[in-house]
């Protein structure tokens, strides 16, 4: 079973994402609302996938939190943002995510992207 960490500061959205991933047979091993704990959690749980909101509680945004991951910990990335065409788009692109989703995230959109990732065996 694939493993994922959700980094999202909106509780309702994080529950929605968790439920959608569960339906897709992906185990959510942690849910974080700030970027400060991402490195610890990723090293502990060794996820295949990170669903990362750009704007988070705390000092680090989602982009900075992902940049802080050690080189031996590089799971697949799906970024989620309320402004997908905003100033962070270029910074996100440099991190080579599997997808960039705008909010609100729809169940069909997320399922389609995850299924495409599985079909192309982008993360194994």
Automatic annotation (TrEMBL):
Q: Taking every annotated instance into account, which residue ranges of this chain make up the domain Response regulatory?
A: 3-118
Per the record, the domain of life is Bacteria
Gene Ontology annotations of biological process type: phosphorelay signal transduction system
In this UniProt entry, the residues modified to 4-aspartylphosphate are 53
**Any idea which UniProt keywords this protein has?**
Phosphoprotein
Record-linked SMART domains: REC (SM00448)
> What Pfam families does the entry give?
Response_reg
Would the keyword Phosphoprotein be found if you checked this record's keyword annotation?
yes
Q: Note the InterPro entries from the entry.
A: Bact_response_regulator, CheY-like_superfamily, Sig_transdc_resp-reg_receiver
- What is the protein's name according to its record? Response regulator
Q: Per the UniProt entry, what species is this protein from, by scientific name?
A: Natronogracilivirga saccharolytica
The lineage, from the top, is: Bacteria, Pseudomonadati, Balneolota, Balneolia, Balneolales
